[in-house]
Amino acid sequence: MTTYPEFNFNAVLSCYGVTFSSDLYSTLYYQNKEDKAVLQYNPIASPSPATMPYPYYKYSCALMMFKTNATTSNQYLLIYHVKGNAWAAFYLNGNLLKTVQVNEDQTIAFLENCPPSQTWWYMYMFLVTDGQLELKGIECYKL
Q1: Are 21 and 38 in contact (CB under 8 A)?
Q2: pLDDT of 30-88, one tens digit each?
Q3: Cis amide linkage into residue 55, ω under 30° from 0
Q4: N or C: which end of the chain has fewer CB within 10 A?
Q5: What is the DSSP string of the chain?
Q6: Which residues partner with 122 through β-bridges?
């Protein structure tokens, strides 16, 4: 019989400069039912994708902070489900992973080596051009 160690996962998702519906005057019930965060372009605070924007909370940004009991022999598969028409920049712990042009519904995946167990990771998604992006969900798998 094979036994598998329990996988412990702690995560927090924070969004800045967002609305929770593309309809400005929708009710709280409708916004909750939509189940997405909409990042909207802000021409005053639009980051350059070359460097990590600081302070991050002044921009249209989704920040996922997480840690697990994974070891350095594991990898994380992070999958972002987004929709919209704009460019997004993704950073891991302040380092640019990639800049992606989102067109309609899209899945964006990252495969990263795990740090030592119980190390906090900070994964940022910034809206960097005119337009809007809907963050519909993030999945994380330990491989």
Answers
A1: yes
A2: 555 566 677 776 655 556 667 788 888 888 888 888 888 888 888 889 999 999 988 99
A3: yes
A4: N
A5: --------EEEEEEEESEESSSSTT--HHHHHHH--EEEE--SSS---TTS--SSGGGSSEEEEEEEES--TT-EEEEEEEEEEEEEEEEEETTEEEEEEEEEEEEEEEEEEE--STT--EEEEEEE-SSSEEEEEEEEEEE-
A6: 65
13 vs 123, which has greater pLDDT? 123
Task: Please count the other Cβ atoms lying within 10 Å of the Cβ belonging to residue 49.
Answer: 19
